[in-house]
Amino acid sequence: MTKTIAAINIALAVLVLIPGLYAPVTVAGALIPARFSLSDGVFGEVGYMLPVWLTPLSSAFLHGGIMHVALNMLMLLMVGANLERVLGSKSFAILYGAGIICAAIAEVVAHPQSPMPVVGASGAISALFAAHMQLFPHNRPKDWGRVSGKLVHAAQLLVAWVAFNLMLGFVGPGIGVNIAIWAHIGGFIAGLALTWPLLNWRYRKA
Question: pLDDT value at position 45?
Answer without folding.
Answer: 63
